[in-house]
Amino acid sequence: MVRIFDAVKAHPVRGSGEKARDPIFGLTMGTSSQAAADVFRWFCVEGGNAANPSVILIHGFPSQAYSYRRVLPILSKNYHAIAFDWLGFGFSDMPQPKYGFDYTLDEYVSSLESLIGELAVDKLSLVVQGYFAPIVVKYASTHQDKLKNLILLNPPLTDRHAKLPSALSSFSNFLLGEIFSQDPLRASDKTLTSCGPYAMKEEDAMVYRRPYLTSGSSGFALTAISRAMKKELKAYVEDMRKILSSQTWKVRTKICWGQRDRWLNYEGVEDFCKSSNHELVELPMAGHHAQEDSGEELGQIIARLLARG
User: Fold this and answer.
1) Helix, strand or coil for residue 11?
2) In DSSP terms, which residues pair with 55 in a beta bridge?
3) Cβ contacts of 112 within 8 Å, gap of 6 or more
4) How far from each other are the two terminal CA atoms of the chain, in whole angstroms?
């Protein structure tokens, strides 16, 4: 059974508490765009018995915890499975940039540390998809004692992967980025369907669109993280390669790769996995968001990898 948490509060809001303003017109924004007074609210879902080993499912950029809707029930049979929306995505807090959270990659690392600490999970496994993988690996590098397994789904592993695809980098453009990010079809539908074979059903599309339909804060957050990724992703990818190849890296690591990924080229992935001694599992029919294209298959694969570990 899958359950929705009450909002989990984690990661302190920094700053003076000044009301957030629209970056284009300078008008005070509505309550949904304002940061909480003390700590941020995260949307989380869970399944399974809390006494079982814990696995946290971390969505990619841009996506939501909803992307694991077919994976989480499978893992819940033998694990305590948790999925969450990153700050700025889905139904978690979406503070206006410069008013408590600036969406830098370093802030995402520290916010993940806060959330996992609040969830009070000791030994756990992490599953992370796409462009948020370097952020999670950086967190993991300083918390290896807490981790049992790390499973990466289509992470940016090579130098060629360190540049955002045009479907995402367009949101970082000056002025046009703010305009594009306020279009629900461009911000959700296009980004999810342009990176692989995934064809969204209308009921699924509406879940992804809803944050953009209900508040402009989703779009402003998307622009902010796109700009941060454009600026910082290359260094984070380089760091991730070094961490995963280091002799000091002790966490059991598996890489699952949807081979129909239109954003990240497969070239170099197999070589990296061999040289760093990480198991590579290929999903021939999946694209960048493997959990969308092949959710049930991926759920079974993750369950086997965790059990084997």
Assistant:
1) strand
2) 81, 125
3) 58, 135, 136, 139
4) 25
State the DSSP code for 21.
B
- Do the beta carbons of residue 288 and residue 198 sit within 8 Å? no
pLDDT in tens, 67-123: 999 999 999 999 999 999 999 999 999 988 887 899 999 999 999 999 999 987 789
On the 0-12 / 13-18 / 19+ scale of CB atoms within 10 A, 309 is: middle
Query: Is the backbone peptide bond immediately before 62 cis, with ω within 30 degrees of 0?
Result: yes
Give kind and range of the element (H or E) at residue 301: helix 295-308
The DSSP result for 114-160, as a single string, is HHHHHHT--SEEEEEEGGGHHHHHHHHHT-GGGEEEEEEES---SGG
Residue with tokens 């290896």: 144
Residues 243/249, Cβ–Cβ less than 8 Å: yes
pLDDT tens per residue, range 209-250:
999 999 888 999 999 999 999 999 999 999 999 999 999 999
Nearest Cα neighbor of 223 from 190, 262, 187, 188 is 187
Q: Is 12 left (phi over 0), alpha (psi -120 to 50) or beta?
A: beta
pTM above 0.85, yes or no: yes
Q: What is the spatial distance between Cα 206 and Cα 208, in angstroms, rounded to a whole number? A: 5
Cα–Cα–Cα angle for 205, 210, 215, nearest 5°? 150
Q: Residue 74: what residue type?
A: I
- DSSP letter at 188? I
Let me know: does 298 contact 283? Beta carbons within 8 Å. yes
Alpha carbon 307 to its chain centroid, in Å, reads 24
Dump the DSSP string for 229-279.
HHHHHHHHHHHHHHHHHSTT--SEEEEEEETT-SSS--TTHHHHHHHHT-E
- How far, in Å, CA of 94 to CA of 214, rounded? 12
Query: Are 272 and 241 contacting, i.e. CB atoms less than 8 angstroms apart?
Result: yes
